[in-house]
Amino acid sequence: MHKIMAFSQSAHKSQIPINCHLCDIEKNIKWKCLECELLLCDNCKIKRHPRIKNSNDHRVIDIKDVGLHGEELDFTSIKCRDHPGQTCCLFCKSCNSLVCPTCVSKVHKKHDLIEISEAYNTKKDNLKRGQRKIEMGKSEVFTKKRLLERLKNGENVKYTRVMGDIKNQGEALKQFVDKHVEKIRNEVDQDRKTVSQSIDAELHTISRSIQTSDDKNNEIEDLINNTDSAKFFYEVGKIENSMDVPSPKIKSTYKSIPDFVLGKINQSNIGLLQSKVTPLELIVSIQINKQYQTEHSEVSNISACSDNSILINCSLDEKFMKVKPEGKF
Q: Which residues contact 9 (CB under 8 A, 6 or more apart)?
């Protein structure tokens, strides 16, 4: 098979003319014998090839079909690995191996033995089922890949949105804080101005009282130092009656600049992150593994039993049956 396909591929690529293998003259090749592996012209196919021993059993195909027809495998010449010189004749299902007559007589006599061709077809079917299973698994993997890529793209979009929200919140908070700070600073400035004006008014009253006391004290000092006795007695009476300087009255309490009480800065004032789990919604695909034919007009209900049997109900026929399909399902 590999040899035929290799020839077919090389013939199509190079397009080198090949003579008929029997007459070695004719270049118009039309046929190929799968048993002899000979390339034949029309004349040699009809006249020369039939002369070959047992050629009646040979398969001769159109050269255009080379590579399309697979050669039948030869199961009659497989050498036994355990007994040189012996040819394998059967396949042991119990041991999962090819066996020759000697193998059968010594080890596999009571084992489950089948024809090699049957084992080949069974194994081939198993491989094909394996291929289908692999393809189904591959399809599921690609589905998961698409879902994960879609999830990743969604997370990237969400990332951009969340970062934008955080930035906007930060800017809004900054504007609010700046505006609030400016407001309370203006209030403190106004309170300071009010307090200062109130205290300054009291200080002015006290300054006037001190000045009055100083003036009165100087007047008394001048009279004490006066050497004119007549003037002394004339003035002392008036001064004695006006020596009391009243103490100015001031408030007992004054408005004070308010203290600044620090506010709490926490996540609730700014915002916080809330985690959540995004479910990955897998797409479930259903594929038909095997089909079974019933005699019912329709199948209304179906359920599987623990013994691998199936309960089938047909409402139209008013029938109910229990069946057990052959093989695995």
A: 67
